[in-house]
Amino acid sequence: MRRLVSELYVRDNCHPFKATVLVWIQLPMWIFMSIALRNFSTGAARSEGFSVQEQLASGGVLWFRDLTALDSTWILPVSVGVINLLIVEIFALQKIGMSRFQTYITHFVRAVSVLIIPVAATLPSSIVLYWLCSSFMGLSQNLLLRSPRFRQICRIPLTKSDSDTPYKDLFAAFYAKFISRK
Fold first, then answer.
1. What is the pLDDT of residue 119?
2. pLDDT of residue 137
3. CA distance 112 to 131
4. What is the rounded CA–CA span in Å between residue 12 and residue 7?
5. Cα separation of 136 and 97, whole Å?
6. pLDDT of res. 53
7. Which family does it belong to (predicted)?
8. 146 with 170: CB under 8 angstroms?
9. Do residues 128 and 83 lie in contact, with contact meaning Cβ atoms separated by under 8 Å?
């Protein structure tokens, strides 16, 4: 059995470790970037001349002019939570017949997505803006990799579960699950 599994790994180029490589790189990078931004925002990181904290304090845009301050409008924290929840729901909508463990994990990640809102509201805007950009890029990648044309351009092979109309299917599943419920 081990030999057959090893042959499948080689033939399909799909070793399970490959699925975890992203987590081993992306998660520590996300944590270190968040800590670095916190240190810059609070002035813990000292430098010669014009400090990074002063630059962050005057480098905001729109309603958050000071990236070292909290977002009093809660627009950034709520946006982070909503985008993370959207990513989870897109993943959950594509799965049919999830196992009990997958269902528990999905509920846990939904709860984390909601609980991140008050946590993000207590952090400097620079960190929350970074989290928002990171989540938005994750959502964008998730949606882009569903595009048949993009997959064809990048020579990503089709799978049995791929659809010719992934966005329509996603919208229909979203509509059926959340809007047309009675």
1. 93
2. 93
3. 14
4. 8
5. 28
6. 66
7. Belongs to the OXA1/ALB3/YidC family.
8. yes
9. no
Contact indicator for 58, 109 with CB cutoff of 8 Å: no
Using DSSP's 3-state secondary structure scheme, residue 61 falls into strand
Nearest to 139 by CA among 170, 172, 164, 160: 170
What type of residue sits at position 37?
A: L
* Residue segments in the chain with a per-residue pLDDT below the cut of 50: none
Q: Does an H or E element contain 74, and which?
A: none
Cβ-proximal residues to 165 (8 Å cutoff; 6+ apart), any chain: none
Q: Pick from 32, 62, 64: which is nearest to 134 by CA?
A: 32
Alpha helices by DSSP H, the chain = 2-12, 16-42, 52-57, 75-94, 100-121, 125-144, 148-153, 166-174
State both tokens at 152: 């064809």
Q: Write the DSSP assignment of 14-51 as a string of letters.
A: --HHHHHHHHHHHHHHHHHHHHHHHHHHHT-S--SSS-
Q: What is the pLDDT of residue 86?
A: 92
Contact (Cβ atoms closer than 8 angstroms) between residue 124 and residue 70: yes
